[in-house]
Amino acid sequence: MYKRALEGYEKAWGPDHTSTLDTVNNLGNLYKSQGRLAEAEALYKRALEGYEKAWGPDHTSTLDTVNNLGNLYKSQGRLAEAEALYKRALEGKEKAWGPDHTSTLDTVNNLGALYKSQGRLGEAEALYKRALEGYEKTLGMEMVKTYPPALNTLGNLGRLFHQLNDKEKSRLYFLRARDGCQAVFGSSSDRYKNIVSQLRLLQGESSG
What we know:
Layout: H1 2-13, H2 18-33, H3 37-54, H4 60-75, H5 79-97, H6 102-117, H7 121-139, H8 141-144, H9 148-163, H10 167-185, H11 190-207
Helix pairs in contact: 1-2, 2-3, 2-4, 3-4, 4-5, 4-6, 5-6, 6-7, 6-9, 7-9, 9-10, 10-11
């Protein structure tokens, strides 16, 4: 369906129209989820170049694709490139939307995950906490319970504190993530089951 839409947009509006580029970016997301990373990278780069020409380097659609390309590079282990892209996206989103916009906070969380993978745990903790506090401030405590990116940050904090051997903090964050994932995705979802497994592991370590 994306290919059909893309072909139609290219014929109707041309290869560099922003609606065409939106579909290019979406097809890149699909390929990334399928593990077709080289194809995804080519599409993200095409979309990014087109957005920069059409809207400039600091437009929010440009920055979304910058963030997507950062995610791709992180998954490939290209961490220095990913960090540069996340920082670019974060700086641009802070200027465009402010520090507590949910899209800004999504990139804060992504940069935290990158730092954790590099062993920069103190920096990761600060970014995860900033993301969570921002979600709570912007959305409210009740909405955070059902907002998937916030649940992702809760799980990230649980895993971080587990690595830091602070089992009590880890358990508290995992419990919040578990309840939210059950409400949003259901108890048969992989996300819920993963959190439950983490809690069981903590329980076993504590009792052992």
